[in-house]
Amino acid sequence: MSKTITAFDYKVADLTLAEAGRHQIRLAENEMPGLMALRAEFSAAQPLKGARITGSLHMTVQTAILIETLVALGAQVRWASCNIFSTQDEAAAAVVVGPNGTVDNPSGTPVFAWKGETLEEYWWCTDRIFDWSSEAAAAGEDFTGPNMILDDGGDATLLVHKGREFEIAGSVPATGADDSEEYSVILELLRASLKNDPTRFTRIAGEIKGVTEETTTGVHRLYEFHKRGELLFPAINVNDSVTKSKFDNKYGIRHSLPDGLNRATDTLIGGKTCFVAGYGDVGKGSADALRGQGARVIVSEIDPICALQAVMDGYQVATLESVIETVDIFVTATGNTAIIKPEHLLQMKHQAIIANVGHFDDEVDMAGINRIQGIEKIEIKPQVHEWRLPNGRSVLILSEGRLMNLGNATGHPSFVMSTSFANQVLAQIELFTKPDEYELGVHILPKTLDEKVARLHLSALGVELTQLTNDQARYIGVPVQGPYKVDHYRY
Amino acid sequence: MSKTITAFDYKVADLTLAEAGRHQIRLAENEMPGLMALRAEFSAAQPLKGARITGSLHMTVQTAILIETLVALGAQVRWASCNIFSTQDEAAAAVVVGPNGTVDNPSGTPVFAWKGETLEEYWWCTDRIFDWSSEAAAAGEDFTGPNMILDDGGDATLLVHKGREFEIAGSVPATGADDSEEYSVILELLRASLKNDPTRFTRIAGEIKGVTEETTTGVHRLYEFHKRGELLFPAINVNDSVTKSKFDNKYGIRHSLPDGLNRATDTLIGGKTCFVAGYGDVGKGSADALRGQGARVIVSEIDPICALQAVMDGYQVATLESVIETVDIFVTATGNTAIIKPEHLLQMKHQAIIANVGHFDDEVDMAGINRIQGIEKIEIKPQVHEWRLPNGRSVLILSEGRLMNLGNATGHPSFVMSTSFANQVLAQIELFTKPDEYELGVHILPKTLDEKVARLHLSALGVELTQLTNDQARYIGVPVQGPYKVDHYRY
Amino acid sequence: MSKTITAFDYKVADLTLAEAGRHQIRLAENEMPGLMALRAEFSAAQPLKGARITGSLHMTVQTAILIETLVALGAQVRWASCNIFSTQDEAAAAVVVGPNGTVDNPSGTPVFAWKGETLEEYWWCTDRIFDWSSEAAAAGEDFTGPNMILDDGGDATLLVHKGREFEIAGSVPATGADDSEEYSVILELLRASLKNDPTRFTRIAGEIKGVTEETTTGVHRLYEFHKRGELLFPAINVNDSVTKSKFDNKYGIRHSLPDGLNRATDTLIGGKTCFVAGYGDVGKGSADALRGQGARVIVSEIDPICALQAVMDGYQVATLESVIETVDIFVTATGNTAIIKPEHLLQMKHQAIIANVGHFDDEVDMAGINRIQGIEKIEIKPQVHEWRLPNGRSVLILSEGRLMNLGNATGHPSFVMSTSFANQVLAQIELFTKPDEYELGVHILPKTLDEKVARLHLSALGVELTQLTNDQARYIGVPVQGPYKVDHYRY
Amino acid sequence: MSKTITAFDYKVADLTLAEAGRHQIRLAENEMPGLMALRAEFSAAQPLKGARITGSLHMTVQTAILIETLVALGAQVRWASCNIFSTQDEAAAAVVVGPNGTVDNPSGTPVFAWKGETLEEYWWCTDRIFDWSSEAAAAGEDFTGPNMILDDGGDATLLVHKGREFEIAGSVPATGADDSEEYSVILELLRASLKNDPTRFTRIAGEIKGVTEETTTGVHRLYEFHKRGELLFPAINVNDSVTKSKFDNKYGIRHSLPDGLNRATDTLIGGKTCFVAGYGDVGKGSADALRGQGARVIVSEIDPICALQAVMDGYQVATLESVIETVDIFVTATGNTAIIKPEHLLQMKHQAIIANVGHFDDEVDMAGINRIQGIEKIEIKPQVHEWRLPNGRSVLILSEGRLMNLGNATGHPSFVMSTSFANQVLAQIELFTKPDEYELGVHILPKTLDEKVARLHLSALGVELTQLTNDQARYIGVPVQGPYKVDHYRY
Question: Tell me, what's the ipTM?
Fold first, then answer.
């Protein structure tokens, strides 16, 4: 894996890159009022002193500010990206060098991430963020790994759980014929780990106080772990804070979907027929963005409630099959699998665009598409490929079917990440400082903290908040300072 | 109260009115696919056979179809409106006469409601729907009142609770100086009831299996009753079904707010500056409707999360005080009290319009406004009043500060009421047929029923629902037929 | 025609009606800042002193304010409506009684219009407004008719042209088998006129200085007259002032289309599939309004430029035939003929709604529909008819296929009519006071007047206009005070 | 100027660059159905055979397809960009190499343009496209320059007019103290030309049959030339084709404004307060795009008609001064000068963004900003500069105040450029093949050609056009095949 290390070292050595990243961080800090407010509120008290946080989340400029906020609150941090394409190298470099460091004397945080990792490299990076031996040595303490995880999609959490499971079993199972390429890479990594240190992940799991998880997909995995009785430590579901799911998922994608389409293809969205699979928060933001650009949007849904919302919002709701031949741009936003299948490609218009914003790359069945007889893949530019089909037409697939808003653009913008990451910081503080209040299970942040996150973002947008009078608070039976809604309120 | 009875009798006697109502019912049935589907599904099984339902809900054409659906499923029903202005007299007449009745031989359901009741008349009507003596006599049974309540705003439920409370106390408290006019009417009624039959409401309360409540306000009252340990029977919170709160509240008001403004004032909404107090579901629908007509919308909020939603949706968020002098149309949608106060009126533009869609008439402080020195009230037409202010300007207040979408228009349209009322019917069936599954408390309908309501409304809107494959259902860990979401999902 | 006169006399006698109209006029004056500003600017100078204006335009509250503005500027006026359904009786009554008159001693302006005229009554009214004998007698002068026409749709202008044509020919042609019912009524009227006074319309035509025409349809007729060399006096095309066509046509219909749909049917627009035939200004406003209510809108067009605009604005563009079975609400906005034909009705969904906003009633082929074998027409309420089709389904046709925004609602709101009518007033002043500047032909108002009309409406909407600096004016080569655009600028 | 030539030569030598450009051209051809349809229709007839076209227009991928379309129709072409930042180098390289050429044996069209020219380089390039000596030599003919100009902004036209003017005067005037830097560069160039060949531009002017001009600004210059009697050859105003001004200006900017903002700053647009100066077509598209992303938009206008449109479209209309302190993003779209002045910067929020989409760089007064005492300019990345102000705040100015949709993004997308460029091609054919029909002056394309351009773009967007029947055509008095509207129709 020497190539990888070299690539990373090279980046660290590149002060120009780090400087460019530092400029971007400085500008983005103005767009992340939530994180900056938390620094102002908590940096004296150092609530995360003693926290060793292993973070697996897209290594962007915004994440750089999250990392530096965690550090400002007292934490030690090691970081990897949670997606092979999403790293902004200048942000990674800037975090490693640190605000006051130099190439020769970096003073920042270890980051293991670069744009365009292979799967092997990706899992090597994920493995690295669990290796806290140098920190243990420096501290003269006896720990193996982190005591906190900050996760996005659950890969870091998965690695600990699987690692411990196989250590207890005493062996890693053989790779099966149906296993995905990625799972075979994980198994290989864990085989090496088991051989090298047969109790490593068991020790690591024992040290961890909890995980805070960013996304729907990762949260879903956590609920599954817990349902099966396999969850090893408490989790906070950051995704379902209102100020996360209803902001990052909806307003973030509203921004980054058209941004990614534009950077990838420069195709006019206006006047086009766009198909959005899924009308959850991500689908809602997608449809809104496309309509805002003058597209005609058709939505598909499996949930009758969301389908009814879509039609009441003015969208045609149809199955993919019934409209496929009229669609110019396909957007998958379901979090499910096999939404766009190989046979679909053959029915599409020439140069139809396929864009996945729904987390994993099996939403568009890339494996199946690769197996189409006679298909040819041409790189137009990085993350933009033309797939020539045997029928003489071609389609454009963005970011190899992975998250195109990260691969073709720069992900959610700073402001929405500030709402999302302020939740992460508060969740880390909760789990780390009040372990007794969070028993084994998957928790949602208290509504007061959710409202606090919102409050931290208002003045930057010029919002004047109305104050409840005592009479009014009494009339609706809530405290003057909130929380203002019942827990099941849907916003 | 002879005047009242006469008025009502006169209406019943008016076959022309009933015929007009019957026409409207027939047309509206096509717009209420949920209720009609429930009739088709359940009329053979008669799940509500034996149910005696006391209903207090705006007596509109849509409610007529709800009532006749309940009857089609086996129930006996007595009905009043829950608002003094909201009754459509032709709908009331048609329900009384019944689909196959005549004026001389009515075969319908007893209704106690007409447009423009006084407060005394209103509570007399509410009292009437608890008097099931004629039904008891006809059945040769020994009951006093209903065994089910279907409520909107909680007035029927309140009457039983207060009635029983005072019966147990042995006396009705004296009317206090601070008591509202309405509360003094209630106390007066209960004094008469106590005198006439000192255990009447105690017996009624004991017969009731449960209540299904329609609105935020009524649900809030129920939670308060339950918190104080005073709730007398289980309740289903219909308001918080997704297919109710996210449809009726949002899409209903989107329709009926501009409709009411137009019918009341014929004022161009486009180009105007509109102020919407509150950005809950009703406020969201209001803002959307006004923007859809080309207005500039300013929103006020006390909840930082909703405030952040408003600004992310592109609205200016400000306090009433800071923008009051620039606003043409004021809409209150908070469910709170004293949003628009007398002193505000004096700062408003000439002929500014005040429209309350937030449930009670204290959202606009009508009592206070009436007390402004030198104010003059001129009726432009029914439910539209010009209030001439001492400063020489005037403002228009719609529906006397009560729900203008009901008072100045015809309320939510049939289609959204179909989603809301299908929840009511299913909730009535649940509480009546499965009493053991609903302990004392406030319950939300199971998500499967919520999804069922949505499903019943799709084909009428031309929606093609996508079917999950088995693989996909397994992938996201849900049954192929749903429910598709975790309970805390916010839609 | 005694019935007619009686009906009208009754209305005039009804002071309650006139008082109600006066209230509405007073409120609407606040919404017509353009007309009120013209009164303030010109009432001292009396530029229309000596003008005898025959007006044919929907007799609404807004028109009442137009009439009273013309009078305030010195004119004498006689008025009829230009549509059999569009009169608001209270407005007509108020104009007749006048601001300071009484029933016994009316001091207003003669109006010949009421809601729900027959075709015979309609043309009788139109004939009346050309009879200025009482005014001539009162003035001791020798004129037959008006010296100015203010027209909407061109019926008044048509009557003069046809009347004179037949007088010159010496006879009125026999009614042909293909002549419409309406044309046969006109011929009948002119036969009577010719018999009674064989040079009446020839004398009237000779007295007229010019006509100002309100609508696309009427303007089209004028251009046709002029192209054939038949135009008898100069015309100002008010319709094509930007502040008319781009405001009244677009923003007026955005208001009054959903208003009419709501008042007629109370049907939820949200979630429905709506078809808008024609994407001119009226179609653009219609589509915008329907989308603003959450409908899915499909547009049809014959002009490729307008079709391209529609698709770029995000609408599906399709032929009626290809989508007819999926549509809930049909809106015709073409100004053309036979858009919806009898055979179309048989393909429509049950209770589909048909709404014409495109001027004449042949846009929906009512004559053809009446001839469908076995069709049955049921009046749901005035101007709302259910047509039961032989296939068992029914459709709802609003306002008998005539302008439903006038027939089912109250037409364009005051504010947009203020822009439109301010153009009318300025056009009347131009033609009456500067006859030498307007040779025989069809003219558009100078851009300075168009901009003046806009300027008169800004402060009421809180607009702050930016002032050009001298440098900036020089830079773009326009006067600091305007006009700011080249004549062919499209806005 | 050897550096320039070298830079260009280098690019030509770079086959990788040309290949990348060729890929993009191939993909973009699918998005330019108008140009491809014109190739299909006219390539056999070769209507531009003999045309020598000097083109000055942003050298993008879309322009490459325009150039190759002109060549396909028989023309010879020389090309420069009309903006120092707007060239896409790979597109330039691909055009030079040609579809079938190689680096060693290029077979394309001479292009003089690269991204990031100095002013000297820019005007050197513009001079080069008038030097047709090698073509004359190759043809054995005796001409000096082009016989057609295709212009954008009028720089090529200006050079010929000024060159001839000074040749007739016999000298180039001295550079004045108030002359802009750019004008001094032009004067310098013309001094050298005059010295070298004192009749060069006079001969060139004599050979030119006409110019077709792309933009508002260039058209304005042409009308000014013509008004002063200085115009040297007929011009077609392509900008004012409906399918140009109402598409490129409006829908193009709707796409490229947010695209440029995103690429430049990655700042969330949603929730922000955006100020759009000017509500012409570009301003309308800008406001629409920003609202579509969830921004609150405030518009400024000097024209009362456009101001009234803005407020009727739901935007606050205010002066810059009254809202400057609340604005996050400033967009100038006026085509005028000195909209944002140095003193304004000092009132802006920290990190406010300034984006000009209004043609010239004096819309934001860059010269004045450069002179602010103590201001500091930091390059964040190419075309994105932070200007640190003496008050401790900073602002971001995009593309040095020039067109940011070109400098920070890739300009209008292919599809809208296809409508615009199809007009250019038809205009070139008109002027070149029918010189007798276009006398000296500024002409607009016949409406039939405008409609033709629209028609060529419909099927790509799935539009079904409705066909007029003969009866309908007769009814509205137009030919079945169009044109469908009067000339003054505004769309």
Answer: 0.93
